[in-house]
Amino acid sequence: MAIQTTQHIWHNGSLMPWADAQIHVMSHVVHYGSSVFEGIRCYSQGPLEAPKGAGIFRLREHMQRFLDSAKIYRMPLGYTVDELCSAVIEVVEANDVSPCYIRPIAFRGYGEIGVNPLKSPVEVYIANFPWGNFLHGNEGANVCVSSWNRLAPNTMPALAKAGANYMNSQLIRMEAATNGYDEGIGLDRNGTLSEGSGENLFLVKDGKLLTPPLANSALSGITRASVMQVAKEMNIEVVEQALPRELLYICDEAFFTGTAAEVTHLRSVDRILVGDGTMGPITRRIHREFFGIVNGLLPDRFGWLSPVTVKSMSVAGETVNA
Ligand SMILES: Cc1ncc(COP(=O)(O)O)c(C=O)c1O
Question: Which residues are catalytic?
Fold first, then answer.
């Protein structure tokens, strides 16, 4: 994802110029990975030719997860969930661009250089930059099972969306790319399915939607929760249970969910086709509903979108590969 700069970044309560948002090389986070962050989409709403507004996807849930991640790491942010939501809206409106990607981040800054972070100051930043409402191509993702496991319980907390967790994600992602795959799926410590390097995983078998529970080292994905909400409303049974690796090869359908992936079906796993490789019927129903709501083409009946006032609206619906 290339970054297109915007004008402002929110820092500790006020807006500053993008170019001035810099940190010292001796900041704690640079050495020890002491950061927590979020990734959020703001969607343009309405018909592709004439967007009629912008909405931030599940803003409150993202900011609550941000606070939860910080709490696990004893990192006081000094802002309530409401204040953080207002800060996101402030920076998105100041930068005046939709669709966009929003990146709140908090970290231990310049203070002491010992491992103990508690004496290094906590810095909170929120940036955003243009990022399309992508309608993914229908070809799906070719993925592998990684030789790297996800984070073992009681090592790095998987429920914290912490920068350091993404060292594991990078290993999975690099290995997949080196071997010609779009993405890798990590197993948990017991060898059961966990998640992609940056996505939650769903399988469809005999009409049921199966997904690993959070105890299998998966992030509590906000897209995951949204898809489960949609599926339940469609009377599709959703089962959270430990899943063996080989179910990937014999399931009827499989897909990833996440802020970046949205809902992306898996075409193959370890070069074995999932079903016939095309998007299966249950994935298609969920995909259609999800994109309909976030793009404002269907009513926002779950209250997922926080409206923002943005004048520079680019057109949604560019087709790219997932
Ligand atoms: C490791 C990991 N799992 C799952 C997800 C999906 O979470 P969400 O839907 O909240 O973006 C992400 C993306 O943030 C992630 O990095």
Answer: 161
